[in-house]
Amino acid sequence: MNDSVARYSNEAIITPDLLKQMAYNEKMAELGKISAGVVHELNAPLSVIISASQMIMREDDVPEAVQEMIARISSEAQRLSQLTKGLLNFSSHDETVGETDLNLTVDFILNFLTFEAARRGVTVLRQLDYTLPVIRLDANILKQILLNIIMNALQAMEDAGGKLLIETTNDGPDRICFIIADNGPGIPDETLDRIFDRYFTTKKPGEGTGLGLFVTKNLVESMGGDIKVSSRIGGGTTFVVTLPIQQ
Ligand SMILES: Nc1ncnc2c1ncn2[C@@H]1O[C@H](COP(=O)(O)OP(=O)(O)O)[C@@H](O)[C@H]1O
Ligand SMILES: [Mg+2]
Questions:
Q1: Domains in the chain, please, with CATH?
Q2: Is the pTM of this model over 0.90?
Q3: How far is the CA of 47 from the centre of ligand 1 (A)?
């Protein structure tokens, strides 16, 4: 056994379950890198399809039926191209702290998750305060926080009639706030205290890592913000995140 492995195994007790989880996380991380490459490759042929179909539509004497088909090809290719651009934008690593617009970031994530929500029959309502100031932070971190909380909510709502409300507002002059509320099954009192714990999950192995809310809470607090949850069995779950405008 080489040195680093020995040191590593001395530091933490790796149970078979933990090892399985770590292996799964590693696989997902690798798959993520591969998908970024695949998505990048898709961009070029999609642009060709979009521009070629637009050229055909500009031709004279194209029969109406053909025009309709070309229009569909073009709009589907544009939809895919939006999706791939979203994925690329999301997987990018540049950690720049700039002026970030909370509402635009919420819109970006909700557009990105349109398919996930539709697949589960969830209706998404936005109540955005467009008078909010921009905040100084890394937009990628904000995206990840929103994604973690919203994906959990979508995953919790399995029955038809799911509703998800995203509200943005201010919390005094120096802080902004967003509220993510679902009408899913809720979280029992005995687990509510544990949902931010590392590796705490109620999902099947391979479905949940138990890291989402742990990472989310740490990211929020590292920016001087805070995250609160309230939940009632059968009454849904609400997360409230506040962040300072300046750090
Ligand atoms: N909106 C929600 N509704 C019901 N339960 C939730 C919700 N959000 C989080 N949870 C609970 O918190 C647990 C931990 O979430 P998370 O840290 O993201 O890990 P994971 O999603 O991998 O299970 C989930 O397994 C689930 O039991
Ligand atoms: Mg999660």
A1: 3-91 (1.10.287), 98-244 (3.30.565.10)
A2: no
A3: 39
